[in-house]
UniProtKB/TrEMBL annotation:
The keyword Glycosyltransferase applies. GO terms for cellular component: cytoplasm. It comes from Polaromonas eurypsychrophila. It holds the Pfam family Pribosyltran. Pathway: Purine metabolism; AMP biosynthesis via salvage pathway; AMP from adenine: step 1/1. This is Adenine phosphoribosyltransferase. Catalyzes a salvage reaction resulting in the formation of AMP, that is energically less costly than de novo synthesis. It is found in: Cytoplasm. It comes from the Bacteria. It catalyses: AMP + diphosphate = 5-phospho-alpha-D-ribose 1-diphosphate + adenine.
Amino acid sequence: MTIFYQATMNPHPPDSLSHLTVNQYLKNHIRTVADWPARGVQFRDITPLLQDPKVFRVLIDAFVHRYMDKNLRPDVVAGLDARGFILGAVVAYELNVGFVPIRKKGKLPFTTVQETYELEYGSATVELHTDAVKAGDKVLLIDDLIATGGTMMAGKKLLEKLGASVMEGAAIVDLPELGGSAKLKASGLPLFTLLDFAGH
């Protein structure tokens, strides 16, 4: 994504949108926390993107502008537990489509479908209400970050169990070295991410 914002006033601060691509502007607002949640992990913290109203708007607009295109417009946005809820709900609101949460096991009160996926140590299960989507719905599946790809793959399978079609997976950050994005693409899922980080 290479949208540039033109300068209208001078001087501009060095981090102003007029001097940066949207991708770089957003990347400058992601905090890296060393050795969390375990030693050797470089955790990419997206909360600074949400705290500043201007940065948050730029972030959401980057997704909304893409999915306003009639060829990419979803019928429904599905968000993955938990930061996918933050992004997905706002994107769905702006696109004037419905939002559905894909939650960790035991959090949804109605009848659900389940999908279990492997973690580095053990496994996890996510659930979706059986009436969340209809057969034939085009769904945008969104999360904050793609690491190993397990959660997004499980979300895709859940939506497909109900007859929906996942048109694209979207995230702010891709961590390509962890192999998740390659695995998701190999499964046939198109991906849209705003930026990537080398390393864990």
